[in-house]
């Protein structure tokens, strides 16, 4: 029988390189409640080469990134939502298994000391998780559950703020084609608007209704959430001054009811118009124009060249005095 360690030898002569030259050394807190540093991970699918990734562990969440500068992690394991076990393997390695998940997650540290530190920190964070008295499998049963950190719908509704973003991945075949063309995980994007009553509004443009503000409650009552494979939330980190909110209100008032418009001519010509004076919009253009209206994008920025992928990337837009937080998947089973 060939184990996971042997696979690397049996199918590849690849010799793993060291972490990037500018890699930070492993840092661990005195209590082992947090640790960060570079680990090698074995890709889940296929016989791909082991790869270096930057990992952080704190507050019972293990995250990994392509680089130390990334805001959005490439994967997240939230031990508050998972039941897992750890086992050591030879040559500086260890494996994490999760209840009801068919995959095993293999890692290697840079040396034995790092391995001991990671194992100690992992055990402490797992013990500190909120679910130690019961088996959690609602998340681990789902395909590629680690790709996004997951939050409940309640968490979303109590934490969302005006200007935040919502990404949609529809189930329809046409939506998948659209995502492939747009090089994004999502085919639709909208902006959060919070009512004074505390309710959540979704400001968007669709081919059916044009520019409109709909209640988040409608996604439940009308079963709209069933049309999507994923709905992902991203927080806008910005000072929400009275001036900013007033400018946003003016933009919403001036654009509501305008039609949906998407054409090759619009994309190619990329005419710069004052925010709110456009005749029609497509989804990401509307959100970009709103950001432009409140000063988060330059006045000469051409919004017709913006697609969901630009909001999805950490460095996709030249935001001014604002940043976007990590992508969080809204899990309606939590």
Automatic annotation (TrEMBL):
<dbReference type="InterPro" id="IPR024453">
    <property type="entry name" value="Peptidase_C92"/>
</dbReference>
<feature type="domain" description="PH">
    <location>
        <begin position="32"/>
        <end position="127"/>
    </location>
</feature>
<dbReference type="Pfam" id="PF00169">
    <property type="entry name" value="PH"/>
</dbReference>
<dbReference type="Pfam" id="PF05708">
    <property type="entry name" value="Peptidase_C92"/>
</dbReference>
<protein>
    <recommendedName>
        <fullName>PH domain-containing protein</fullName>
    </recommendedName>
</protein>
<dbReference type="InterPro" id="IPR011993">
    <property type="entry name" value="PH-like_dom_sf"/>
</dbReference>
<dbReference type="InterPro" id="IPR001849">
    <property type="entry name" value="PH_domain"/>
</dbReference>
<dbReference type="InterPro" id="IPR038765">
    <property type="entry name" value="Papain-like_cys_pep_sf"/>
</dbReference>
């Amino acid at each position: 029988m060939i184990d996971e360690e042997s696979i690397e030898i049996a199918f590849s002569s690849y010799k793993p390189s060291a972490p990037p030259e500018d890699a930070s050394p492993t840092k661990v807190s005195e209590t082992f409640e947090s640790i960060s540093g570079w680990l090698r991970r074995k890709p889940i699918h296929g016989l791909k080469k082991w790869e270096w990734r930057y990992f952080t562990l704190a507050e019972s969440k293990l995250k990994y990134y392509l680089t130390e500068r990334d805001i959005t992690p490439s994967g997240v394991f939230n031990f508050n939502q998972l039941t897992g076990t750890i086992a050591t393997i030879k040559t500086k390695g260890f494996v994490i298994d999760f209840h009801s998940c068919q995959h095993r997650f293999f890692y290697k540290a840079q040396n034995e000391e790092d391995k001991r530190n990671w194992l100690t920190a992992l055990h402490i964070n797992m013990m500190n998780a909120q679910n130690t008295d019961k088996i959690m499998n609602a998340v681990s049963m789902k395909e590629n559950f680690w790709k996004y950190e997951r939050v409940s719908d309640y968490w979303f509704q109590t934490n969302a703020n005006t200007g935040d973003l919502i990404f949609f991945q529809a189930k329809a075949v046409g939506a998948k084609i659209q995502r492939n063309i747009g090089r994004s995980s999502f085919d639709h994007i909208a902006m959060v608007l919070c009512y004074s009553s505390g309710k959540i509004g979704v400001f968007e443009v669709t081919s059916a209704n044009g520019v409109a503000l709909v209640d988040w409650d409608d996604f439940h009552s009308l079963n709209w959430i069933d049309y999507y494979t994923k709905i992902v939330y991203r927080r806008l980190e910005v000072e929400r001054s009275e001036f900013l909110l007033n400018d946003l209100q003016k933009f919403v008032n001036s654009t509501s009811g305008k039609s949906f418009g998407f054409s090759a001519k619009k994309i190619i010509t990329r005419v710069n118009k004052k925010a709110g004076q456009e005749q029609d919009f497509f989804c990401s253009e509307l959100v970009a124009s709103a950001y432009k209206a409140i000063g988060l994008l330059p006045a000469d920025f051409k919004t017709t060249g913006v697609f969901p992928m630009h909001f999805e990337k950490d460095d996709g837009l030249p935001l001014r005095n604002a940043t976007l937080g990590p992508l969080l998947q809204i899990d309606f089973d939590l």
